[in-house]
Amino acid sequence: MKTVVIVPSRLASTRLPEKPLAKLLDKEMIRWIYDALKENSRWDLYFAVDCQKLLNFCDEYKIPAIYTDPQLPSGTDRVSAAYRKIGKKYQFIINAQGDEPLIRAEYLSSFIDFVEKFDKRIFQRSIFTLAKEEKNIESFNNPAHVKAVCNEEGRALYFSRATVPYPREKSFDFTFLKHYGIYGYSPQALKKFVELKPGKLEMIEKLEQLRWLENGNDIFVQKVDFDLISIDTREDIETFENYIKKTLCN
Question: Which of 4, 7, 84, 192 has the fewest C-beta atoms under 10 angstroms from its C-beta?
Answer without folding.
Answer: 84
